[in-house]
Specification:
There is one protein chain. This protein has helices at about 5-15, 45-55, 75-90, 100, 110-115, 140-150, 195-205, 220-230, and strands at about 1-5, 25-30, 35, 40-45, 60-65, 90-95, 120-125, 125-135, 155, 160-170, 185-190, 205-210, 235. It is α/β, with parallel strands linked by helices. Strands 7-8-10-11-12-9 form a six-stranded mixed β-sheet, sandwiched between helices. A five-stranded mixed β-sheet has the order 2-6-5-4-13, with helices on both faces. The protein has a two-stranded antiparallel ribbon with strand order 1-3. The relative contact order is 0.18.
């Protein structure tokens, strides 16, 4: 058993949620048992995730996408049903959003950089830029993509033959693309908009949509493993795949 309060304090010292103006509360969003032993972790809070966590006997739900919005007073519909089920089963809900995207070395963006064998260069907006020491062919880069995102239905817009500088904004990051124009030859994110195809064509940039869910599996897995190492927690990944 370990203390939820101590686990939150430990993760807060690593992720520094106070440094982010997020649109949700980071940390314990719903209080359940004070001491727990089993963690169910995953990308997004939804009914399937909650049900599977209960079936596995979890006491702490650890997610990247928890309850969004900082005002819980008006509870109705889907949000009310989810919260009601969590409370009835004495579960604790803990969530980290932007701090988990941006953290080095445990966050989503840096994890994707490492898996693609890129060297971290700098942070821009909600993402990061990585570089290859020597440019690689697009075909080699494509193989790296499929190894990193084996379940994604990748949307790939190719405009160059060689890859050297890559921008990464995991999750819903297509709106960040203008910040990377002229700085990278390739941009990876988990979403796209109607104008994306024409924008990257005109800018000469390669674009890869690897899916919101599939670009954000890494960070939550990393911090769940930190809790396993620190407290001996029993952890289980609750996979509720989403191709979007």
């Amino acid at each position: 058993m370990f203390s939820v309060a101590q686990a939150q304090e430990y993760l807060n010292t690593i992720l520094n949620p106070q440094d982010y103006d997020d649109f949700c509360f980071n940390g314990v969003q719903i209080e359940g048992l004070s001491d727990v032993s089993k963690i169910a972790y995953g990308v997004s809070l939804n009914d399937d995730f909650i049900e599977k966590s209960i079936e596995q006997g979890a006491e702490l739900l650890l997610v990247h996408h928890g309850i969004f919005g900082k005002d819980f007073i008006n509870l109705h519909g889907v949000k009310k049903k989810r919260i009601e089920k969590i409370i009835k089963n004495s579960l604790t809900l803990m969530s980290y959003h932007l701090p988990l995207d941006m953290n080095i070395p445990y966050g989503n963006n840096i994890s994707v950089l490492k898996k693609l064998k890129l060297k971290y260069l700098k942070t821009i907006g909600f993402g990061m830029i990585g570089v290859y020491e020597k440019p690689i062919s697009f075909n080699e880069f494509k193989r790296n993509l499929y190894e990193t995102f084996p379940r994604s239905e990748l949307q790939i817009y190719r405009n160059t033959e060689m890859i050297s500088t890559v921008g990464i904004v995991t999750g819903d990051g297509s709106g960040e693309i203008e910040k990377y124009e002229g700085l990278v030859d390739t941009f990876i994110t988990g979403s796209e908009k109607e104008y994306t195809r024409n924008w990257v064509k005109e800018s000469g940039m390669n674009f890869i949509n690897a899916g919101h869910y599939n670009t954000e599996i890494f960070g939550i897995s990393n911090i769940a493993n930190l809790l396993k190492i620190k407290y001996g927690a029993d952890i289980i990944f609750i996979d509720v795949p989403n191709n979007l």
